[in-house]
């Protein structure tokens, strides 16, 4: 079937890409923005970024605590940074308390988990229907002897810890008047959007795997 789309060869496309000049300083700043915002580690990546190393260290400590399942420690650290973060964000505080409940269930502390759910989470569920639904999902983990058979077993995945840790990290950044989202993921989303738009007009090599950035012909 004939196509009216313009066909761009790999050589032509690579020449167009190579013609775009990117400054190393801009790339360093982009990488630094991602690392600082996500709080992965401290790394002297040039002198273009003004960074408060103390605040990064504090955020890293909070994220690590949540990622390791030490939610009580994380809450203490957040309150040490700024008590208003949790006082003014009931959804975040609920999610941290929910994660505490999940950790109790993970450890097999059934009675303690039920008591914690009743005393700490149930009152919040009575005030917020969304919280109540999340609480009911979490408590459902206790119904199944084998959590792998539970419809909400994903709550026990490490990915749920990471999600909660990211939520806390974003709240801390907001409280410090910093950007809560790194620029790099937004640029990658823009790349995908641009390719989808261009697909309607041309046939050209794609970047299908964002982790490698390798060009692939449409047929690959």
Automatic annotation (TrEMBL):
PROSITE patterns: CTLH. The lineage of its organism: Eukaryota, Viridiplantae, Streptophyta, Embryophyta, Tracheophyta. InterPro entries: CRA_dom, CTLH/CRA, CTLH_C, Ubq-SigPath_Reg. Residues 55-112 form the CTLH domain. It comes from the Eukaryota. Pfam families: CTLH. This is CTLH domain-containing protein.
């Amino acid at each position: 079937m004939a196509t009216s789309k313009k066909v761009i060869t790999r050589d032509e496309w690579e020449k167009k890409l190579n013609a775009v000049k990117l400054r190393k300083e801009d790339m360093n700043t982009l990488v630094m923005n991602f690392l600082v915002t996500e709080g992965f580690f401290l790394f002297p990546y040039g002198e273009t970024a003004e960074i408060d190393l103390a605040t990064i260290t504090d955020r890293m400590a909070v994220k690590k605590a949540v990622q390791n399942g030490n939610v009580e420690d994380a809450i203490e650290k957040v309150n040490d940074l700024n008590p208003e973060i949790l006082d003014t964000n009931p959804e975040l505080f609920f999610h941290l308390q929910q994660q505490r409940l999940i950790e109790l269930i993970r450890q097999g502390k059934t009675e303690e988990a039920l008591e914690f759910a009743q005393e700490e989470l149930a009152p919040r569920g009575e005030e917020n229907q969304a919280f109540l639904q999340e609480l009911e999902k979490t408590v459902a983990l206790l119904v199944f002897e084998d959590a792998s058979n539970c419809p909400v077993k994903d709550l026990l995945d490490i990915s749920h810890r990471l999600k909660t840790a990211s939520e806390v990290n974003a709240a801390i950044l907001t409280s410090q008047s910093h950007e809560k989202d790194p620029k790099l993921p937004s640029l990658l989303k823009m790349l995908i959007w641009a390719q989808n738009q261009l697909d309607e007009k041309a046939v050209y090599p794609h970047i299908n795997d964002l982790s490698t950035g390798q060009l692939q012909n449409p047929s690959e």
